[in-house]
Design brief:
The structure holds three protein chains of three kinds.
Chain A: E1 4-13, E2 16-26, E3 31-35, H1 42-50, E4 57-62, E5 65-66, E6 77-80, H2 92-102, H3 107-120, H4 136-148, E7 154-158, H5 166-183, E8 186-191, H6 194-200, E9 203-208, E10 211-216, H7 218-223, H8 228-233, E11 240-243, H9 245-248, E12 254-257, E13 262-265, E14 271-280, E15 284-291, E16 295-302, E17 312-317, E18 323-325
Parallel strand pairs in A: 3-8, 3-9, 6-7, 7-8
Antiparallel strand pairs in A: 1-2, 1-4, 4-5, 9-10, 11-12, 12-18, 13-17, 14-15, 14-17, 15-16
Helix pairs in contact in A: 2-3, 2-4
Chain B: H1 7-34, H2 39-42, H3 57-66, H4 68-99, H5 105-116, H6 124-133, H7 140-163, H8 168-176, H9 181-192, H10 194-210, H11 213-218, H12 226-231, H13 241-261, H14 263-270
Chain C: H1 4-36, E1 38-41, E2 46-50, H2 54-61, H3 65-95, H4 101-109, H5 116-127, H6 134-141, H7 149-152, H8 154-179, H9 183-191, H10 196-224, H11 228-233, H12 243-253, H13 257-287
Antiparallel strand pairs in C: 1-2
The chains are: A alpha+beta, B mainly alpha, C mainly alpha.
Chain lengths: 333, 276, 288
């Protein structure tokens, strides 16, 4: 139980249309990630689903029932906020128990559920502490604990990892994914980080300026981006875009090649250039090559490659993996 | 970085500041000292600073003669009641302004502030008439209401500035967790804002305690608080320095101590957040 | 944030405060306005009908009016000048490193918490009494004739008492402002070769400008309506009748409600002029 359907949903703040008409299906048990640059409307969309904002027009259905005007508490959804939004004056136990207390559940049942959630989330040792005495990751887990005890139909995550440092973020990403595997509850997750989107999602929704650019499985978006924007947004480092004569040769306004789809050679290749900055990571080497007639290209080479600043190189794109885009920005198939 | 200063410079600062501080505090100190003197010693020429026969007699005389306890009780009731009532009315209003601001919020806040600037004397007679009509003259209830109303703008402002520092996320989380508006304010907002609410209570209690225009004009015998009690000593027959000092000390000491705790809030409260 | 639900809840929760204050403002003010156009003498015939602007003209043309305006200006101006100048000096001093800073602060702030009736009485009797007051002793000690403060120098005495009460407020606010001054800015100006007096003129004073304005405006509003200090010390005698005290006397002592109300309307207008400036500053702060 946890399907969510948006039908022609819009949201305007005064004269500004933050969400243009959007249709979206989230199926029961799915992990859906809303991704897009800041200001694309992804958080607003989540808040509309949560009921923290009214839709300007359109309908939101939860479990096939119209929930457009139902207040947030009654929608059967739980939300994890970017700032965690823990109650600073309550202990971890009370924080997790709060939604149950609000629902008027029996004290003994609350205690049992809170202990269970604390155990699952490794919070048992901290159960009587205040949020102020916890680390970022622990706070994050309390916020998740508060969400899971309610056994909601769906979880909403609003950029939950953006306040954590890089190492912890990786861990929490795994934990949330595992949580999804074990609970099999619908999750909607908002992020601006395409790595989080790629690694966690069953389905990615790419948003820009209040409209959905593309919806699909991560690899589907990587392989078949519908347009320039999605192509540039999904994948890291970013896809290289080339315009002008080289693109026209392929009957396109723009052509795009991912850094990992280049091969590098000292002696021969399609485009000749000079290495600018070379980033040696050990596992990969990223070369920033200024190629004649093409501009600066980011090129990924496997493992360690012995190239340095100022070296002459030749780069060649894998012919099967060149994306072509028309003047309207859409992919030419 | 604060720079280190020479000891000499620091000594000069200290001496100067202490001298000025004591000079400013002197009238209060002298009043307190005088309250422990006999009447004769109080007007001794030359004045006696410390070496007099300390006595508590004045305090018992003041208490017996004027039923100090009743005035004190009136003061506590009026200051406490008006402040508490004001906060109860102001919390929901400040919640609205801080967390559901609209285009008019700022105008409403400024308008509230403007009512605070209404010169009391301009509306003295109408209030007097209304008090007579509703039987509120010389009643603790009436005075409590009036003082609540004159301090309400400050209370709303102070709470508003404190509430604005509370992240709205937390209130939304409470909403998602199924809290009703009442629970949200009672269990989440209010406990989080306890320091701010306490400061607001404290400062407004002090302001109400010291209010002198309405207390002098709207009370007679029954509901008079300490401000009016003290003013009664201005008549010639009450003119005994030691007793006057004892009465004054009793009237100001509790509030002086509260005041020292609330000096930071004073800046925030009385400048409406315009000086930080 | 905000849904239709929370917006309507917000309006509902704001209502009590707004309605109370609206009533508190409008009802008595309307009555004052009404009385100001009527000849109303409760003890001498009651309400004697409309008189147009008669009360307004009479209030202004009475022989007490201009002196009361003058007294008001002297008291307000005098107290403002004293509290601002000494407030700045004291704030700068208290900002310096010293021993026992907290205690000095407590000593300096204390007078603000003394209720006005107490401070007026203590000053009047224990300090300014021409026979037994401390000042009289002091004068005699130096061989001078004691001054009858509240009759010979009545307005100055009141300025002194009120200044003593308000100096802490000015000092505290200015001190808060001084402390918010970035010390790096002072050090930078020192590096640029500014002398102490120049640093004060070019860096500190401009930084304090806003706090000074606030002090002036807020004090003006309170000072325009000082009451207890005059009521207790001189009862308006010896040229200490301020505009608001004059109105008070018209209303309660001579029971001429129409005349007093006209004066009240003048006072309201005067206070509003000050208030508008204060609002501008506070309002700007709201956007920040």
């Amino acid at each position: 139980m946890g399907s969510i359907t948006l039908k022609q949903v819009t949201k305007s703040f005064g004269p500004v249309d933050v969400i243009k008409p959007i249709d979206l299906e989230v199926e029961d048990g799915e992990f859906v990630v809303f991704v897009g640059p800041s200001g694309c409307g992804k958080s607003t969309l989540l808040r509309l689903i949560a009921g923290l904002e009214d839709v300007t027009s359109g309908h939101i259905e939860i479990n096939s029932k119209d929930a457009t005007t139902i207040p947030p508490a009654k929608r059967g959804l739980a939300m994890v906020f970017q700032s965690y939004a823990l109650y600073p004056h309550m202990s971890v136990r009370k924080n997790i128990a709060f939604p149950l207390k609000m629902a008027g559940i029996d004290k003994a049942v609350i205690d049992r559920k809170v202990d269970e959630a604390a155990r699952v989330l490794n919070l048992s040792d901290y159960i009587d502490r205040r949020p102020g005495q916890l680390s970022g990751g622990q706070r994050q887990r309390v916020a998740i604990g508060r969400a899971i005890v309610r056994e909601p139909d769906a979880f909403l995550f609003d950029e939950p990892l953006s306040n954590l440092d890089a190492a912890l973020r990786g861990n929490m990403r795994l934990e949330i994914s595992e949580l999804h595997q074990s609970l099999k509850t619908t999750m909607i997750y908002v992020t601006h980080d395409q790595v989080e989107a790629m690694t966690m999602a069953d389905k990615i929704v790419v948003l820009r300026d209040g409209i959905i650019e593309q919806v699909g499985a991560p690899i589907e978006l990587y392989k078949n981006p519908r347009n320039l924007f999605v192509a540039g947004f999904i994948g890291s480092p970013k896809m290289n875009f080339i315009t002008g004569a080289e693109a026209e040769k392929k009957d396109a306004h723009t052509i795009g090649v991912r850094p990992e789809h280049f091969s590098v050679s000292r002696s021969k290749g399609t485009w000749k250039g000079t290495v600018g900055v070379a980033e040696h990571l050990g596992s990969d080497t990223f070369l920033h090559v200024s190629a004649d007639g093409v501009g600066t290209l980011t090129v990924r080479a496997d493992g360690e490659v012995d190239l340095k600043y100022g070296d002459d190189v030749h780069v060649t794109a894998d012919p099967n993996k060149i994306y072509r885009f028309g003047t309207d920005g859409n992919t030419i198939r | 970085m604060a720079r280190s200063v020479t000891t000499q410079r620091k000594t000069i600062n200290t001496v100067l500041a202490w001298a000025i501080g004591l000079l400013i505090f002197f009238p209060i100190l002298w009043t307190i000292l005088t309250s422990f003197k006999t009447e004769a010693q109080a007007i001794n020429d030359p004045p006696i600073f410390l070496f007099f026969d300390w006595t508590l007699e004045n305090y018992s005389v003041v208490q017996e003669r004027s039923n100090y306890a009743r005035f004190l009780w009136n003061s506590i009731f009026i200051a406490g009641g008006s402040t508490l009532l004001g906060v109860i009315i102001a919390i929901p209003a400040a919640w609205s302004m801080a967390f559901v601001p609209s285009k008019r919020t700022k105008d409403i806040l400024l308008w509230m502030l403007s009512t605070k600037m209404l010169p009391a004397v301009g509306v003295l007679y109408p209030i007097y008439l209304l008090f007579i009509k509703f039987g509120l003259l010389d009643s603790v209830l009436g005075l409590t209401l009036v003082i609540m109303l004159i301090n309400l703008p400050i209370i709303v402002w102070m709470l508003y500035t404190y509430f604005r520092e509370i992240p709205v996320d937390i209130l939304e989380a409470a909403r998602m967790d199924g809290a009703s508006l009442k629970s949200e304010i009672l269990y989440v907002l209010t406990p989080m804002a306890v320091p701010g609410i306490a400061s607001t209570l404290l400062l407004n209690f002090i302001l109400a305690w010291n209010e002198a225009f309405w207390t002098l004009n709207l009370t007679a015998a029954k509901a008079a608080p300490l401000t009016a009690f003290i003013a009664s000593y201005s008549s010639p027959e009450g003119l005994f320095y030691a007793k006057l000092s004892a009465a004054s000390t009793m009237a100001i000491l509790p509030i002086l101590i509260l005041g020292w705790f609330s000096q930071k809030q004073l800046v925030r409260g009385l400048t409406f957040g315009a000086v930080k | 944030m905000a849904t239709k639900n929370s917006r309507s809840a917000a309006r509902l929760m704001m209502a009590p405060a707004v309605i109370l204050l609206l009533g508190w403002m409008l009802v008595p003010l309307t009555m004052t306005l009404w009385f100001s156009f009527r000849k109303y003498l409760p003890l001498r015939g009651g309400d004697l009908g409309w008189v147009g602007f008669d009360n307004y003209v009479r209030f202004v043309s009475s022989s007490s009016f201009w002196p009361s305006v003058q007294t008001t200006l002297i008291i307000v101006g005098g107290v403002l000048a004293i509290t601002v100048v000494f407030g700045i000096l004291l704030a700068l001093l208290l900002d310096q490193p010293m021993w026992g800073q907290g205690i000095v602060r407590i000593l300096v702030i204390a007078p603000f918490f003394v209720m006005p009736t107490v401070s007026a009485l203590v000053w009047k009797n224990i300090f300014m009494d021409p026979v037994n007051g401390l000042f009289a002793h002091l004068w005699k000690f130096f061989g001078a004739t004691p001054i009858e403060w509240l009759s010979q120098a009545s307005v100055q005495s009141i300025v002194m008492i009120v200044s003593w009460q308000w100096l802490p407020f000015a000092t505290l606010i200015l001190l808060t402002a001084v402390q918010s001054l970035d010390s790096e800015r002072l050090e930078a100006s020192e590096m640029d070769g500014a002398k102490p007096l120049q640093r004060f003129g070019y860096i500190i004073l401009p930084h304090l400008a806003r706090a000074i304005t606030i002090v002036v405006l807020i004090q003006t509003i309170f000072l325009l309506s000082i009451f207890a200090e005059i009521f207790v010390t001189t009862g308006g005698a010896f040229g200490t009748k301020t505009l608001s005290y004059l109105i008070f006397q018209r209303v309660l002592e001579s029971q001429n409600i129409g005349l007093g109300s006209a004066g009240g309307i003048y006072a309201v207008i005067l206070a509003n002029i000050v208030a508008i400036f204060l609002m501008r500053i506070v309002g700007k702060n709201l956007d920040a």
